User: What shape does this take?
Amino acid sequence: MRDKCGVVGISTAADDVARPIYYALYALQHRGQESAGIVTHDGFQQHSHIAMGLVGEAFDEADLVGLGGAAGIGHVRYPTAGSVEKSCAQPFTVSFKNGSLALCHNGNLVNAGELRGDLESLGHAFTSDGDTEVIAHDLARNLLRADLVRAVKRTMGRIHGSYSLTIMHDDTVLGVRDPEGNRPLCIGKVDDGYILCSESAAIDTLGGELIRDVCPGELIVLEDDGTGFESYQLIETDRTAHCFFEWVYFARPDSIIDEKLVYEVRREIGRSLWEESGIETDVVMPVPDSGRAFASGYVEAAPDTVEFAEGLMKNRYVGRTFIMPTQDERERAVRLKHNPIKSTVAGRTVTLVDDSIVRGTTSDQLVAVLRAAGAQEVHMRIGAPPIIAPCYMGIDMATRDELIATDRTIEEIRDVIGADSLKYISAGAVAKAICKDSSALCMACITGEYPYDIDGEQTDRPVTRPTIGEPPASADD
Amino acid sequence: MRDKCGVVGISTAADDVARPIYYALYALQHRGQESAGIVTHDGFQQHSHIAMGLVGEAFDEADLVGLGGAAGIGHVRYPTAGSVEKSCAQPFTVSFKNGSLALCHNGNLVNAGELRGDLESLGHAFTSDGDTEVIAHDLARNLLRADLVRAVKRTMGRIHGSYSLTIMHDDTVLGVRDPEGNRPLCIGKVDDGYILCSESAAIDTLGGELIRDVCPGELIVLEDDGTGFESYQLIETDRTAHCFFEWVYFARPDSIIDEKLVYEVRREIGRSLWEESGIETDVVMPVPDSGRAFASGYVEAAPDTVEFAEGLMKNRYVGRTFIMPTQDERERAVRLKHNPIKSTVAGRTVTLVDDSIVRGTTSDQLVAVLRAAGAQEVHMRIGAPPIIAPCYMGIDMATRDELIATDRTIEEIRDVIGADSLKYISAGAVAKAICKDSSALCMACITGEYPYDIDGEQTDRPVTRPTIGEPPASADD
Amino acid sequence: MRDKCGVVGISTAADDVARPIYYALYALQHRGQESAGIVTHDGFQQHSHIAMGLVGEAFDEADLVGLGGAAGIGHVRYPTAGSVEKSCAQPFTVSFKNGSLALCHNGNLVNAGELRGDLESLGHAFTSDGDTEVIAHDLARNLLRADLVRAVKRTMGRIHGSYSLTIMHDDTVLGVRDPEGNRPLCIGKVDDGYILCSESAAIDTLGGELIRDVCPGELIVLEDDGTGFESYQLIETDRTAHCFFEWVYFARPDSIIDEKLVYEVRREIGRSLWEESGIETDVVMPVPDSGRAFASGYVEAAPDTVEFAEGLMKNRYVGRTFIMPTQDERERAVRLKHNPIKSTVAGRTVTLVDDSIVRGTTSDQLVAVLRAAGAQEVHMRIGAPPIIAPCYMGIDMATRDELIATDRTIEEIRDVIGADSLKYISAGAVAKAICKDSSALCMACITGEYPYDIDGEQTDRPVTRPTIGEPPASADD
Amino acid sequence: MRDKCGVVGISTAADDVARPIYYALYALQHRGQESAGIVTHDGFQQHSHIAMGLVGEAFDEADLVGLGGAAGIGHVRYPTAGSVEKSCAQPFTVSFKNGSLALCHNGNLVNAGELRGDLESLGHAFTSDGDTEVIAHDLARNLLRADLVRAVKRTMGRIHGSYSLTIMHDDTVLGVRDPEGNRPLCIGKVDDGYILCSESAAIDTLGGELIRDVCPGELIVLEDDGTGFESYQLIETDRTAHCFFEWVYFARPDSIIDEKLVYEVRREIGRSLWEESGIETDVVMPVPDSGRAFASGYVEAAPDTVEFAEGLMKNRYVGRTFIMPTQDERERAVRLKHNPIKSTVAGRTVTLVDDSIVRGTTSDQLVAVLRAAGAQEVHMRIGAPPIIAPCYMGIDMATRDELIATDRTIEEIRDVIGADSLKYISAGAVAKAICKDSSALCMACITGEYPYDIDGEQTDRPVTRPTIGEPPASADD
Assistant: This one.
């Protein structure tokens, strides 16, 4: 499933688990606005409610009341370019010989096609295109002949790619993170129980405490009575591939991912951005809201003569239902979304700070808006290195053709967007801000070297895909 | 799937098959109002649209335009007592090693649980409770090692119960009827192609011609180019079990089922009803609309002094969204639905004719309404024998406890509903009207003897359930 | 307001008047399917709920609970060709110096434009195009200087046209019928109170008793405590103009309008139709459901050799949301709505009986359907005389151009619709069936002579429009 | 109409005025989220579309296409405590003797009841409770006997209170601002025409230029062909009463109101806040987003040792459909909406800056959230003086009982919200930041002295309500 998503799993002693999951999904709403779903289990049976739209649109009070039980998992799904269908909404549920399974997946398998082919050879039939269904069928199959921990291990041995999963087998809630730790997953303590979730902000929201990140290759099994959890390091791994974009763009500023607060990483990158390429202009302003933390760090490192001020006002109401202006009214659309605060801009030299440039279209327009508002100079400073390669690990960023930096020098990009100067942060400074060696991060989109074995792409490490085609391991191995 | 449903399958030379399917579903709407769905195939891929509600609510013009292709199947589903869920709506679709499958099912399997257990043992996981998914998985599995005709034969050898199916494998449309022919299925010629459907009225609606009924145990494969069809008698059968209730209640009067026009069967039963138990009253009136054809036959056979007139006016707007009166306003609900035409009733002796009595609650109330309107005598004549046993073959009639006739004599029933006399037609007269030997009909609900092997029930013939647990037949048998 | 509508008004001792109004509107649903509304008054304030769609769509349980009070009025509105807007939905409500007014109107004023101009000259401003708002403003104005009865009388002296109104002034419910009695209105006794409504079937539905029709020119005021009603004959009238089409087409068969049961009128017309133009064919069949009562009377008068049978099956699901076939699929649309029962038709001579022919398009198609089904001859018999002129009194029938009979002889019409013979009932027979002198009926659509003073049309009696422009009557007249 | 709303009026040479009005309403969405409406006039007739919800929900492409014409007005409405009804949505439209009127109102009349009584005495009837309808009727009445300018002048002489109106008489668009200039209204040049709107940001959005504010007591009439506008100073006024809260809270930071950029006013207040009551803490943080500009000014004035950082993360998805936690889960609701960024807060002294305190409940909870996140000290600084009196001029703030400052000293308020210190800005500093004498502002909510004659309240100037009861001025005055 090519998507940036949010996953949750909770097991408590209380029997109203749908409510904390609902609030946790609200806290993860920024990770997916296409659909929202919750599946719970009351010890006897599953209850499920999945609907299109935001969490607040997908659930009403009656829906929550209908989701009985002390264990459950939840999911918010990111809108991808392709088919917007209810059939792809999660959690994905199946029932099989030994009970019921529900799965929430954040990430993307590299070998889903092969694994699906293998299962089809064994007679399996599928109702969706998603790789989540493939994982579900493989896991169900393995559960026929092995206990829970061994079944998960076997499935992990067969899938290759990025995955943070929350899983519910009958009323047991599990969490699994891929051996590279590409997507985030953490565990926390909440009232009467424990929670697995994509970001720690969801734990805060419930008044709970972050315990730690789930380790790459680790399986966490929550106790059914909410009293604790068990850990199984199912796959040893010596080199992680945490997605650096989580800190730069995806995650909430108030989340702690792999031990680093996102807001601090962004401010630190901002400071480094000044160190690497600072320029003294009258004013520094963020692209709201994405550039705010970077700009605040940048200004902090700059001399006092450099003023920090808001120069662009964002209209938060421009959303899904907005009727786009016709082609010759394009400027209106930009002005509707970002209107300059003229006194900040007019007659002044300006530095505009943003988190990243993907296609370059917004940057282009914002520079024009600032010039029209009277800016004498417009300099851009960017909190991520140039993006030159697509993501195969779960982020629907863009194809190579669409990326402005794929075949352009920085000078050429500056020319396209019309800025007086343009500087990107260095990859090293990003890694330093995250307090990790860059080899521990997935930086494929800025290097073109991938931590997985992807057809037609280079890899940055020795990896082999699992051999799927062999008969599934026998029950006594 | 315990339901009375309508199924359609069409293959044409034109590429807008969704439109004729849509109209055919309109013609079959009386067989199911809960949900409606169409799946088409354009040679490259499947297109699907399934939604809750009536056909007219489920589809708009854009939905039809989106359903490209020259082959397709469609379904209307009957609202059953239990869960009203989108996941149970049909057609049911899966993709597997050798392509895609879509299925529409009218009927009910007796051994779905066993077959599901067998498939689960082989590793299969299921997304719904329905027996349609069980058929789909079994058929997909058999298609791995056999061609289409042999695969259908193997699946038919493993399932036991009533089923009229329209199936689409990639863009090939098939129709299958169970060896007892319990549910109807017929084949017709339409513009540029052929149609399989539950009732011939759907063929009329398309301006087509009924060719014949699909035989019990027969597989029909429509040619992909709309030029013809092939027939395979996969299971020989010497004794059918056509549901007699199709003629008495379910089907449209203008449909021809197993060579007999429904309207004529009902009028003939009406005539026999007079022969068997006619009573000369001032007026004969139908319960609208179910009793109309019976009443017209009854009056035809009666002396000229017996007048035929409408005595009850039915409010056609009382439907799903009607807010029921509170308990002490019950009479209102009856009066809202059936109001007497006083001049027909007041001061006169009345014969009220209906098709059947299931729970007896409506009959009870209608007699009261007629008496309140001044009827001197109210006699009831019923076009079906007393219903004493539940249906396991696809009709969600009632449980034994709910059936008024299970443990009451006719005299006791007459007493409950408060009529001056009550007579049912004989089973023999029904069979005669249908022009079939009663042993060729399923009359289980009036005899308690079933044509299938059902746990805890008697059977009217030597039958054995298929042995499911054995390994599926090898590829070279 | 050019519309065929249904109106209700109830005053009871109980305080849940919304519920009986809701059921009464269900009983009047055939008179209007575009919108439904209820306004109640609890002694302190008005409560209102008005929504588009059928009664069952417009109201849910919570809506009824919110409509407190012991007095209320309700309305169902007919979909007219023009603008479908919520602003035209009724009851129409205004508040003014001396309280609140709510009005429900069935009919159409001939002089609404003049009256509106007069009120505008006095400074009034209007929120809708409807004549109901005009009546409301005039009545409110008169209530400033006169008590209720005198104010209604003054307004009746200024408006000209057809109107059956239910009105609520604060919590007092009134009913008014225009001096010609063009639209029906009756009064009945129900539990704890009294009801005013368009048709008596609504009274039956509530288990009540019809008391009598409201007289032309009469005002009925219901007692606030549900104990009775007062009558004021505000305008004496010597010649009524009851719309004969109410009996022939609009009203329910089980309603009694101006002392004649609609069903009996239709059967009697059927009998006369045989007397005037009977032809012996193998079978007589109604166009369902409009022709059923006529056909039954026709057959009753015919020799026994003429069989009565259903020959056309109507699909009741073809409604507002139906997607029409494209031009070259026209036949499909007819077949979807009316499918022949072939055994009744094939190889036989047929008489088809319907209530009326307006544009002729349906008749044309039905004859073709019967011929295609094998009818040897098709004869049409019609329960109303040829319609040659438009209706200005509240029925949105058609313009003169659209009426098939405006400039054709009967023989020419027969030719257009393709029947072997075509006969209409005589106007005299219709009047006789209604038991009224034809001069007491409005037959303008079949004579072209109107009972009101309409620009560009002839009248059948001496009438003058009220002189609106003069100053409103002083308070002491 | 007690509401904070946004109004627009545009007249252009092009004939697609609905589109720029739609975008202007998007720019004013923050002023009202309950309903949105547009009324246009194409020279022949009015077109109207008004619906509940946000602009993006209320309009789709087809709605805009249906709104033909070169002149139009639009409105967004603020959700008030009382009845949420479609009947209160605007623009309000009436038709009368001399054409059609449409009105959009931002503000609140003090003497609406009296004026309504006067009109009711003249026979007027009303369909809503709103004072907009009262203005409409009065203006329509005056237009009977006077030309446009004189009619507006007469109505302005009869209404008393705050009002910024956009009005359309047939296809002529007007703007009127009350003599005290309480609510904002400005005029701008856009492509092919002119615009009247509540805030200049709407002009920016259309790529236009702000010309100036409409003067208190001024009528602006836009030329029908979009070529210019006329000005009429209908009421001379020597003392304005601009609402200071527009700059502090309501308006967008990028709007210029009465010649002052809102963002600059807020920053300047922030600077004064430091001058008046600065305290050196480790970090200064805004309540997002309302306190951001104030905090940025405050930090700018503070020594360099005081760090500016985000300490609270706002969840923008918590909106109308959010299901509130139960009472004992209250903390969750706060944490869902505002989660602390712990590294900014933990172990540090904190200054939290917000725009105002109304009821005090949010402040209370935010202080608790910061303390729970480890703040050593929490100091609050507020960009508006204590609010001690309700607003009668169009802002649904709160009743006196609900205002935390009505009967508490600042020290007592500090104690309630649990801060270590609490300081409000002085009224003088606010006026200075707005560059106006405080006597030119309406500061009634912080002084208790009103610029209008309100029953039971004191006034800060000599005012008398208009005498409504007298006969309307004759046509020749």
The radius of gyration of chain D is 23 Å. Residues 262-277 of chain D form the longest helix (16 residues). Chains D and B do not touch (no CB pair under 8 Å). The first strand of chain D starts at residue 6 and ends at 12.
